[in-house]
Structures are given as structure tokens and as C-alpha cells.
Amino acid sequence: MATTSASVFNPALALNNYSKEQLHVAFTSNLRMSTSCFTKFQLKHFSSSLIPSQSTRIPICAATSPTSPSETTATTFHGLCYVLGNNIDTDQIIPAEYLTLVPSKPDEYRKLGSFALIGLPSTYETRFIESGEVQSKYSIVIGGENFGCGSSREHAPVALGAAGVKAVVAESYARIFFRNSVATGEVYPLESEGRLCDECSTGDVVTVELAKSLLINHTTGKEYKLKPIGDAGPVIDAGGIFAYARKTGMIPSAAPS
Amino acid sequence: MPTSTIAASGSTPFIIKKKELRVSTFSSTSFNIIPKKRCSKKVVSVMTPTQSQRPPSTTGSVKTALTMTEKILVRASERSALVPGENVWVNVDVLMTHDVCGPGTIGIFKKEFGENAKVWDREKIVIIPDHYIFTSDERANRNVDILRDFCGEQDIKYFYDIKDLGDFRANPDYKGVCHVALAQEGHCRPGEVLLGTDSHTCNAGAFGQFASGIGNTDAGFVMGAGKLLKVPPTLRFVMDGEMPSYLLAKDLILQIIGEISVAGATYKSMEFVGSTVESLSRMTLCNMVVEAGGKNGVVPADSTTYKYLEGKTSVEYQPVYSDDKARFLSEYRFDVSKLEPLVAKAHSPDNRALARECKDVKIDRVYIGSCTGGKTGFFCCGKTFPSIGKKSFISLVFLTIVFLLTGKKDKVPTFIVPATQKVWMDIYSIPVPGSGGKTCSQIFEEAACDTPASPSCGACLGGPRDTYARMNEPQASHIMSMNCLFSVCVSTTNRNFPGRMGYKEGQIYLASPYTAGASALTGFVTDPREFFAVTEDK
Fold it and tell me: Where is the Aconitase A/isopropylmalate dehydratase small subunit swivel domain (chain A) (predicted)?
């Protein structure tokens, strides 16, 4: 894995002149893992780069104080955030016309990612995915109440995950979306204490620290408490309900190839 | 590993495997780890065998008085007691999927259980293509082929196939909208657990069963292994009072959603009881439970339910009912006689408004269809059609009443998409009482509606660009109205989020068939009472 240290290339960080550890983030050139096993949660592979991506997203903060490998299984997300309001329904996340794409087929999985949040009305002036791009530069989505309401389409958390979203931080969730996020392991559905969508703006640089249940907004310099992920965490960490069921001896281990 | 077993009995101690304790309380979801095999027949002990008969509980006092939802889950999980918030492993009676989510579910099933794995029960899976059918979109057509291949491999008993897209009637097995087809084909039975890869699976709660929507991954899991659920607490809605002639179940559910909001019932069960409920479209009520965030809806089964099921199913069923002392999270009471026709304005199902207050809203079109509004109704509306002996009735017929009463023609394009083949045939064959022997189709024609289309989900959710009645571009004629440049549609469907029916800025007003019909006749959102004689209709 090649890393290039480019400590001040991010204008946002430079502007704030932080002397904190974030300035020493190691930039990796790309972050996407192979999408052939979509049920595996991408976070486990956050430090490996397999597929070149066009985006210049800030990679996950991996080079802060040295931590032992066993502590760093997907405990931190770092990147730009995209801010949404209340009741972001599944038709906005992935409009119905794209549902002919089957998420379990790798090339269609990627296509779904390219259409993530394309259903947002034009009141959202900054688009989630820039035209011509197939992934988003925003890896953390911040929402208000009842995120993911509407349909049961699993294509919704899948599209977000395929687009590069690592975590959603919302005030509250609709149940099917939450459950689908956990079952697929595609995005971490985190709940905030209070309305982060009023506090953060699209493009802010944020870090989510799972172990501390904390969201740090580097652009504004504020920190926010999150509700602990709780028992859904082990399922997402394992890579979704199947991986978890295997790990815990529920169903036979190793999918027959 | 457990080393001893205790046979389950009514007063069996509530034993928990050690492993469960570690993960027994998710904040929002539930993932238990009891191996299915062990759970299905015996209660297994890993703690020191207790001498006492009193069930030790981990989450608080054990309730003995249960709500309907709790009872259904108790039975399906072969346990003796449950409390809301608990995780249980339930046996699923029916798993439904369709052309949008089926291929993904199948992909997951094969990947996780193996290319040659067999489904858990070939008779308990019902596969219903219905969403994107009458389209030239290649992927959509391919998805139906994927379903067919899987059903062939697995010898799935219930697959309502369609091959000839040019003429739906040339497909004897094809049904149409999955939720209506499930009901019509006798797959909805009181007391059972039905899961489907569609949020409106809650529709089947009308039959007094637990019915809820799940995603592809959970469904893939069910296909092979069984399912885990969290027990939802129940909200109770008591509706009493004489149902006015101009009101339909849609108005009631819009009232409720407007009251509690789109997240008012998140993770909860919604139970509908009361004298009014017995005589209205229970499926419409339960269908939109998900729009309030609800996990499932239930209506107690009664003689109407049993009559409807006669001849449709040979599977034995056992209804359950909430105990008198069952505890509900909240109870809401409505005097239906005081309600008025409602709409849900764009862009949310809880954006409730009185139809009469929207009479200045100019509209471009009316859409009648979907599992909510294009189906075979559950009851005869006895007041309006006292002579009808039929068990089921077409809610579309309600629409014809409006047209009949006025003898007018639609001012705006009116699209009619029957939910299933059966509904389509009913429209063309059943004479509407009071019309002098005309069928619905004739009445629609005389009112200048569009010819009823091939049955499917249609434009309720937009779909591929060539879907019939999809909202594709704004109407130029709209410049003068307050909704300048935006298309406005009054629809009997269930959701009106931005872009739901296609065009992102299109405005969708959800309404009952009466309100939709009245609006079609005036070209504005219209309270159906404009066309009804407001007399006591006994």
C-alpha cells in the first residue's frame, strides 16, 4: 500500500491551522475495496487500496497516535460530510427507476452507487456526486429525523455504501432502513444527540470516532456526542448479518463457493 | 453447548442461552443467535436448572396479557411469554418477493447458502412479479426472467409468472400487485407471520396476522434459515361512530398519519379496532401503516375475514386477539362521524389538509391505482350497496359512484390502473348497482377516463421512463396557477415524497378514490361532498 504524506494539501485543514494530529494524516491514493463481496463491510479494509478511484476524498484518518492493530478495526471515519434535512426518504436516496439494478451483481452495485441521492430536489444546490463521477467525495452523511423513511428497498443503504459513504449520522431512523444498513453492513447508522444537520454544513471536514461515540467537526472546531452504536455494532463490524451469524455459529461457517 | 433439555410447557421457566445475553438488546434492531434447529422443538437450558416454576425474566416483569402482535410472535417463536423490545426467533409462514427485490434476494441466498442450496420450504415462498412489468426496459424484463429461473430450480409452488408483455390476459398465472394478489390467492391468514421484500407488506395485517416489510439481505436469510424480529409495542387506534357516506378508509388513515406524523409509529405495531373498522377497507388502513413508520398493522379477524378466505386457502389457521388487559403504548380514539375528507399534500404523507381547503389547487391529472387504491376492497360498503351479496368489492367502484352521481366528464386526464387481473376483470364485468346495469369500465369511459391499463404497480413509484401514467414533465398550461410550472396529481397511492411518481418537482396529493374522482371532474382538488347529497345514508 503506497502512501504519500501530503499534510497540508487539504485547504480546509490548512485554513484552520490545526496543530492537532489531523494535519499528519497519511493520504492514500485510493480507498475502494473490491466490490465483489458486497456484503463484507468496507470499513474492515479501510486502509487497503485496491481499486483506483477518481475522487480526491480525504482518506480515513489512520496515522494519529499509534494504536495496536486490534483496536483499530473500523473505529474511525474521517472525511467530508454531506448534510441533509428531515425525512430523507428512499425515493430521494435512490429513485425507483434505478431499482432494476440488482445489488448482488458487482457491476450493477457500482452503478447504484453512482445514482446515490440523485433524487434530492434542486434545493440541494451542491450535488452529492459530481457529474461525470461515479462515487461521492463525501464519506459521511448527516441527517435529521426519520432518515431513510419510505420503501424497504435495500438499494438505499447499498447505493450510499457503493458511493463511498462510510457512516450516516442522523437524529433518528426509519426502521427498515436502519435494519437494512445493519444487515448489509454497507453503512454505519449512527444516532446523534440533537440535530447535527443544523450544526454542520456540507463540505465540513469531520471525524467520527466510534469507540468514543464522538463526531468532531474540524471546520467549525466543535465536537458532538453520538449515541453508542450498541449491539448493532458487532453485526456491522462482522460484515452484516450473515457474517455475524457465521461468526457466532448460527449458520454453517464459510459460504459454499 | 447446552447439555440438558427441558420440554416446553405452559409454565416452563424462561431460559436463555448464555450467548444471548451478550447481544440481547440492540438499540434499534435485533440479532439473536439461537441456532434455529435447537429452538424449534425444545427449550434448552444452560444455566443451573431452576426448581421454581416462576419464569425468571431479564427485561422486567413478564406480561401475561398480550396484544395481538405479541401473541402472534409468541406462538411463532414457540415461547411462552414475550415483552415489547425483546428479540425473538420466529418461524415465518410466508415469504413474499417481487421483481424489484427478488433478484437481489436470490443473489444473496445463493451466495450465502450456496449455488445449490434449497429454500427452507418451497410452499412458503410466494414470488409475484408486479413492479416493472409492462416496459421495454431490458433490465426490468431480465429481472422477471431471473425469478422464473429460480422458481424452476427450486420448484417454487407459487410463482405468478408473466411472459407475454403485450397482453396481460394471455398469462393465466399473472396476477399483478403483490399485496392484493397475496390476499386474493389466500396467502394471508389470521395469526400467521408474513414477511415480504416490500414496505407495504404491512397491508396483510388486515387479516389479523403479523405482516412486515424487510430488505433483500434479511429475506435471503429467511429463505435459508429463519428470521429474527424485535417485538414491537402496540399503539391502539379505536374508531367508532357512523362512517359518513363521503368518507373512506383512506381518509381515516390520512387522519391518523397526520396526527402522529411519519415517524409516529416507528418500531411500533398499529392495532385498529372499533365498530367502524368492521365495515371499511382494512387493507387500506394497514397498507399505509409504514407511512407512519409502523412495523406492522393489525385488525382482528372476524366473520368477514373468514368469509373472504372461504375457498381461497386450505391451510388451517388460528386467529388471535388482544387480551382485555393487554398493555398498549398509547390509545387514540376517533369519532369517525366528525371527520372530513382529507388529502396529504405534497411532499409528505403526514402533510394532512382538508380537501375542501385545497379547492384552489389546480391539478393536471388523477391517478387511480396501486395496492392502496386500485384493489378489490375487503367489504361491501353495505350502506351504499345494500343489495350486494358479493364478498369482496372493488374500491374502484367507489370511484364510479362519483361519476354516476354527476354524469359529468373528467376535466383532466384520469389514469386507472387496476391492481390485479381479477380487479381488471371485475371492472369489465360487474354491474354497478344503481347504474342501470353498466359496468365500471363503461362508467369510466363515459366519464372520459383513460382506458384501464394492464394491472401492475404502474406509476405509483415512477419506474422506468416508459411506465404508463408516469409523471415525466411539467404541464405548460400551468403558468397561471399557484403551482406554476409543476405538475400536480391527485392520487389514490400511498406516498408523495419528491419524485415519487417520476418528475422530482411534481406534486402529489394523496386522497381517497372519492376525492380523486371528484377532483377529476372539476380539475381542482375537490371535496367529494360537492357531489354527494349530504343526507343520512342508512
Answer: 138-185
Compute the nearest-CA separation of A159 from chain B (Å): 13
Could you tell me which chain A residue has the CA closest to the CA of B198? A152
DSSP string, B447-507: TTPPPP--SSSGGGG--STT-TT-B-S--GGGGGSTTTT--EEEESSS---TTTTB-TT-E
Domain that holds residue A94: 76-248
B439 and B360 share one domain: yes
The partner residue sitting opposite A242, judged by closest CB among B112, B139, B213, is B112
Whether chain A has a CB inside 8 Å of the CB on B117: the answer is: yes
| Tens-digit pLDDT profile for residues B108-140 | 999 999 999 999 899 999 999 999 999 999 999
Task: Read off the CATH number of the domain in which A89 is found.
Answer: 3.20.19.10
Give A39's contacts in chain B (Cβ within 8 Å): 108, 111-112, 217
Q: Please indicate whether, in this complex, the C-beta atoms of B104 and A104 are within 8 angstroms of each other.
A: yes
Residue B514 domain boundaries: 345-533
Residue of B nearest to A96 (CA): B463
**CB–CB contact A121 B505 (8 Å):** yes
* B163 and B265 in a common domain: yes
Digit-coded pLDDT (tens) for B27-46: 333 333 333 343 344 443 34
What spatial distance separates the first Cα and last Cα of chain B, rounded to whole Å? 66
- The residue among B31, B86, B142, B505 with the most chain A CBs within 10 A of its CB, best to mutate, is B31
State whether B217 and A39 contact (CB < 8 Å): yes
- Per the structure, the count of domains in chain A is 1
Contacts 24+ apart (CB under 8 A), B31-37: B31/A182, B31/A231, B31/A232, B31/A235, B31/A241, B31/A244, B31/B87, B31/B228, B32/B87, B32/B88, B32/B89, B32/B228, B33/A245, B33/A248, B33/A249, B33/A250, B34/A250, B34/B89, B35/A249, B35/A250, B36/B89, B36/B225, B36/B226
Chain A nearest-CA distance from B311, in A, is: 32
| Number of domains within chain B | 2
Residue identified by cell 404502474 is: B458
The 10s digit of each residue's pLDDT in B210-247 is 999 999 999 999 988 766 667 788 899 999 988 888 88
Contact flag A232-B29 (C-beta cutoff 8 Å): yes
Domain membership flag for residue A6: no
Whether residues B138 and B201 share a domain: the answer is: yes
Task: Identify whether B220 is part of a domain.
Answer: yes
Indicate the pTM of the whole model: 0.76
| Residue in B104, B112, B131 nearest the CB of A154 | B104
